[in-house]
Design a protein that fits this description.
- This is Phosphoribosylaminoimidazole-succinocarboxamide synthase.
- Belongs to the SAICAR synthetase family.
- It catalyses: 5-amino-1-(5-phospho-D-ribosyl)imidazole-4-carboxylate + L-aspartate + ATP = (2S)-2-[5-amino-1-(5-phospho-beta-D-ribosyl)imidazole-4-carboxamido]succinate + ADP + phosphate + 2 H(+).
- Its EC number is 6.3.2.6.
- With 237 residues, the chain is of the alpha+beta class.
- The chain has two domains: 80 residues, Phosphorylase Kinase, domain 1; 135 residues, ATP-grasp fold, B domain (D-amino Acid Aminotransferase, Chain A, domain 1, 2-Layer Sandwich).
- The chain contains six helices and 13 strands.
- The strands form three sheets. Strands 8, 9, 10, 11, 12 and 13 form a six-stranded antiparallel beta sheet that branches.
- A hairpin with a 4-residue loop joins strand 6 and strand 7.
- The radius of gyration is 17 Å and the shape is globular.
- The two termini are 23 Å apart.
Length: 237
Protein backbone atom coordinates (compact mmCIF):
# COMPACT_ATOMS: atom_id res chain seq x y z
CA UNK A 1 0.00 0.00 0.00
CA UNK A 2 1.73 3.16 -1.21
CA UNK A 3 0.89 6.66 0.00
CA UNK A 4 0.08 9.07 -2.83
CA UNK A 5 -0.93 12.71 -3.08
CA UNK A 6 -2.83 14.65 -0.44
CA UNK A 7 -6.61 14.52 -0.81
CA UNK A 8 -7.64 16.76 2.07
CA UNK A 9 -6.14 18.46 5.11
CA UNK A 10 -8.46 19.38 7.98
CA UNK A 11 -7.99 20.90 11.41
CA UNK A 12 -6.28 17.87 12.95
CA UNK A 13 -6.10 15.18 10.26
CA UNK A 14 -4.87 14.80 6.70
CA UNK A 15 -6.16 12.30 4.15
CA UNK A 16 -4.05 10.82 1.36
CA UNK A 17 -4.81 8.77 -1.71
CA UNK A 18 -3.16 5.38 -2.05
CA UNK A 19 -2.32 3.23 -5.07
CA UNK A 20 -5.61 1.40 -4.44
CA UNK A 21 -8.69 3.56 -5.17
CA UNK A 22 -10.84 1.87 -2.52
CA UNK A 23 -8.50 2.90 0.30
CA UNK A 24 -7.08 6.06 1.84
CA UNK A 25 -4.48 6.84 4.48
CA UNK A 26 -5.73 8.87 7.44
CA UNK A 27 -2.98 10.84 9.18
CA UNK A 28 -3.54 12.11 12.72
CA UNK A 29 -1.53 15.29 13.29
CA UNK A 30 -0.53 16.96 16.57
CA UNK A 31 -2.62 20.02 15.65
CA UNK A 32 -5.70 20.88 17.68
CA UNK A 33 -8.28 23.64 17.42
CA UNK A 34 -11.48 24.86 19.01
CA UNK A 35 -14.22 27.43 18.45
CA UNK A 36 -14.33 26.88 14.68
CA UNK A 37 -10.58 27.23 14.37
CA UNK A 38 -10.27 30.45 16.35
CA UNK A 39 -8.09 28.72 18.99
CA UNK A 40 -5.22 26.58 17.72
CA UNK A 41 -2.20 24.77 19.12
CA UNK A 42 0.12 21.84 18.49
CA UNK A 43 0.15 19.29 21.31
CA UNK A 44 3.01 16.80 21.46
CA UNK A 45 1.95 13.14 21.05
CA UNK A 46 -1.65 14.05 20.19
CA UNK A 47 -1.62 12.49 16.72
CA UNK A 48 -0.13 9.24 17.93
CA UNK A 49 -2.49 9.01 20.92
CA UNK A 50 -5.61 9.73 18.86
CA UNK A 51 -4.58 7.31 16.11
CA UNK A 52 -4.21 4.45 18.58
CA UNK A 53 -7.32 5.46 20.56
CA UNK A 54 -9.40 5.59 17.38
CA UNK A 55 -8.15 2.19 16.22
CA UNK A 56 -9.14 0.62 19.55
CA UNK A 57 -12.66 2.10 19.54
CA UNK A 58 -13.29 1.32 15.86
CA UNK A 59 -12.32 -2.31 16.46
CA UNK A 60 -14.76 -2.46 19.40
CA UNK A 61 -17.57 -1.06 17.24
CA UNK A 62 -16.79 -3.43 14.39
CA UNK A 63 -16.87 -6.37 16.80
CA UNK A 64 -20.32 -5.18 17.93
CA UNK A 65 -21.63 -5.33 14.36
CA UNK A 66 -21.32 -1.64 13.46
CA UNK A 67 -19.60 -1.29 10.06
CA UNK A 68 -16.70 1.19 9.97
CA UNK A 69 -14.19 2.45 7.43
CA UNK A 70 -11.24 1.48 9.64
CA UNK A 71 -8.94 -1.24 8.29
CA UNK A 72 -5.74 -1.15 10.35
CA UNK A 73 -3.07 1.09 11.83
CA UNK A 74 -0.11 1.61 9.54
CA UNK A 75 2.23 3.61 11.78
CA UNK A 76 2.24 5.82 14.87
CA UNK A 77 0.25 8.55 13.13
CA UNK A 78 -1.42 6.79 10.19
CA UNK A 79 -4.27 4.34 9.60
CA UNK A 80 -5.64 2.68 6.50
CA UNK A 81 -9.34 3.36 5.89
CA UNK A 82 -11.93 2.69 3.21
CA UNK A 83 -12.50 5.49 0.70
CA UNK A 84 -16.01 6.66 1.54
CA UNK A 85 -18.29 9.14 -0.16
CA UNK A 86 -19.06 11.10 2.99
CA UNK A 87 -22.52 12.47 3.80
CA UNK A 88 -22.29 16.15 4.86
CA UNK A 89 -24.02 15.67 8.21
CA UNK A 90 -22.85 14.99 11.75
CA UNK A 91 -24.80 12.73 14.10
CA UNK A 92 -24.65 13.86 17.73
CA UNK A 93 -25.84 11.85 20.73
CA UNK A 94 -26.16 13.49 24.14
CA UNK A 95 -26.40 11.33 27.27
CA UNK A 96 -25.87 14.28 29.62
CA UNK A 97 -26.57 17.98 29.07
CA UNK A 98 -23.45 19.97 28.19
CA UNK A 99 -22.06 22.45 25.69
CA UNK A 100 -24.40 23.95 23.12
CA UNK A 101 -27.45 22.09 24.46
CA UNK A 102 -27.11 23.92 27.79
CA UNK A 103 -26.72 27.26 26.01
CA UNK A 104 -29.64 26.65 23.66
CA UNK A 105 -32.18 25.25 26.12
CA UNK A 106 -31.06 26.64 29.47
CA UNK A 107 -30.94 23.21 31.06
CA UNK A 108 -28.52 22.35 33.85
CA UNK A 109 -25.11 21.03 32.83
CA UNK A 110 -24.80 17.36 33.72
CA UNK A 111 -28.53 16.62 33.64
CA UNK A 112 -29.09 13.00 32.62
CA UNK A 113 -30.99 12.79 29.33
CA UNK A 114 -33.38 9.83 29.17
CA UNK A 115 -33.72 8.79 26.43
CA UNK A 116 -30.51 10.22 24.96
CA UNK A 117 -30.95 13.25 22.69
CA UNK A 118 -30.10 12.70 19.02
CA UNK A 119 -29.33 15.70 16.77
CA UNK A 120 -28.18 16.29 13.20
CA UNK A 121 -25.74 19.06 12.28
CA UNK A 122 -24.63 20.21 8.84
CA UNK A 123 -20.90 19.73 8.38
CA UNK A 124 -19.97 23.23 7.22
CA UNK A 125 -17.21 25.11 9.05
CA UNK A 126 -17.91 28.56 7.53
CA UNK A 127 -21.53 28.31 8.75
CA UNK A 128 -20.49 27.01 12.17
CA UNK A 129 -21.98 23.52 11.63
CA UNK A 130 -25.63 24.56 12.17
CA UNK A 131 -28.17 22.17 13.65
CA UNK A 132 -30.52 20.69 11.03
CA UNK A 133 -33.37 18.17 10.96
CA UNK A 134 -34.60 15.36 8.74
CA UNK A 135 -36.61 17.76 6.62
CA UNK A 136 -33.56 19.90 5.80
CA UNK A 137 -31.56 16.79 4.91
CA UNK A 138 -34.24 15.49 2.54
CA UNK A 139 -35.06 18.84 0.95
CA UNK A 140 -31.46 19.71 0.18
CA UNK A 141 -30.49 16.19 -0.83
CA UNK A 142 -27.78 15.63 1.78
CA UNK A 143 -29.11 12.09 2.39
CA UNK A 144 -32.20 10.04 1.61
CA UNK A 145 -34.72 8.72 4.11
CA UNK A 146 -33.14 5.29 4.26
CA UNK A 147 -29.75 6.80 5.02
CA UNK A 148 -31.25 9.07 7.67
CA UNK A 149 -32.92 6.14 9.40
CA UNK A 150 -29.77 4.04 9.21
CA UNK A 151 -27.54 6.83 10.56
CA UNK A 152 -29.84 7.20 13.55
CA UNK A 153 -29.99 3.45 14.17
CA UNK A 154 -26.23 2.93 13.89
CA UNK A 155 -25.43 5.98 16.04
CA UNK A 156 -27.73 4.82 18.82
CA UNK A 157 -26.40 1.27 18.54
CA UNK A 158 -22.88 2.69 18.89
CA UNK A 159 -24.06 4.64 21.92
CA UNK A 160 -24.99 1.47 23.76
CA UNK A 161 -21.56 -0.02 23.08
CA UNK A 162 -19.65 3.15 23.96
CA UNK A 163 -21.59 3.99 27.14
CA UNK A 164 -20.77 0.52 28.48
CA UNK A 165 -17.14 0.73 27.37
CA UNK A 166 -16.47 4.01 29.15
CA UNK A 167 -18.62 3.14 32.15
CA UNK A 168 -16.38 0.13 32.75
CA UNK A 169 -13.50 2.62 32.96
CA UNK A 170 -15.38 4.71 35.55
CA UNK A 171 -16.25 7.44 33.03
CA UNK A 172 -19.43 9.08 31.74
CA UNK A 173 -19.82 9.42 27.98
CA UNK A 174 -21.53 12.82 27.98
CA UNK A 175 -21.89 13.35 24.24
CA UNK A 176 -20.13 12.69 20.93
CA UNK A 177 -20.43 13.01 17.18
CA UNK A 178 -20.20 10.46 14.39
CA UNK A 179 -20.01 10.85 10.62
CA UNK A 180 -21.06 8.38 7.95
CA UNK A 181 -20.37 7.73 4.29
CA UNK A 182 -21.14 5.32 1.49
CA UNK A 183 -18.84 2.50 0.37
CA UNK A 184 -19.98 0.30 -2.50
CA UNK A 185 -23.63 0.94 -1.68
CA UNK A 186 -23.27 0.42 2.08
CA UNK A 187 -23.59 3.14 4.71
CA UNK A 188 -20.74 2.83 7.19
CA UNK A 189 -19.12 4.81 9.99
CA UNK A 190 -16.27 7.11 8.91
CA UNK A 191 -14.01 9.83 10.33
CA UNK A 192 -12.72 9.04 13.86
CA UNK A 193 -13.66 8.51 17.49
CA UNK A 194 -11.31 10.09 20.01
CA UNK A 195 -11.50 12.51 22.95
CA UNK A 196 -11.36 15.27 20.31
CA UNK A 197 -14.94 14.51 19.26
CA UNK A 198 -16.68 13.59 22.49
CA UNK A 199 -17.09 14.66 26.10
CA UNK A 200 -15.96 12.32 28.85
CA UNK A 201 -16.19 12.94 32.59
CA UNK A 202 -14.82 10.96 35.48
CA UNK A 203 -17.79 9.20 37.06
CA UNK A 204 -16.92 10.20 40.62
CA UNK A 205 -15.28 13.62 40.36
CA UNK A 206 -16.90 14.78 37.08
CA UNK A 207 -13.44 15.92 35.99
CA UNK A 208 -13.38 16.67 32.26
CA UNK A 209 -11.13 14.27 30.36
CA UNK A 210 -11.65 15.40 26.78
CA UNK A 211 -11.10 18.33 24.42
CA UNK A 212 -12.84 20.67 26.87
CA UNK A 213 -9.50 20.66 28.70
CA UNK A 214 -8.10 22.51 25.68
CA UNK A 215 -11.17 24.69 25.14
CA UNK A 216 -11.22 25.81 28.79
CA UNK A 217 -7.43 25.99 29.37
CA UNK A 218 -7.52 23.26 32.01
CA UNK A 219 -4.14 21.86 30.98
CA UNK A 220 -2.81 18.28 30.73
CA UNK A 221 -4.86 17.63 27.59
CA UNK A 222 -2.90 14.69 26.19
CA UNK A 223 -2.30 13.26 29.64
CA UNK A 224 -6.09 13.13 30.07
CA UNK A 225 -6.53 11.47 26.66
CA UNK A 226 -3.98 8.83 27.64
CA UNK A 227 -5.71 8.24 30.97
CA UNK A 228 -9.03 7.73 29.18
CA UNK A 229 -7.38 5.22 26.87
CA UNK A 230 -5.71 3.29 29.66
CA UNK A 231 -9.01 3.01 31.55
CA UNK A 232 -10.73 1.33 28.61
CA UNK A 233 -7.81 -0.94 27.75
CA UNK A 234 -5.76 0.89 25.12
CA UNK A 235 -2.12 -0.25 25.27
CA UNK A 236 -0.29 2.84 24.03
CA UNK A 237 3.01 2.32 22.21
Amino acid sequence: MNKAELLYSGKAKSVYYTDQPDYLILEFRDDTSAFDGKKKAALARKGQVNNQFNAFVMEKLTAAGIPTHFERRLSAHESLVKNLTMLPVECVVRNRAAGSLVRRLGVKEGQTLTPPVFEFFLKDDPLGDPMINDSHILTFGWANQGQIDQMKALTLAANRVLVDLFSAGNMILVDYKLEFGMFKGELILGDEFSPDGCRLWDSETLEKMDKDRFRQDLGNVIEAYEEVGRRIGVQFD
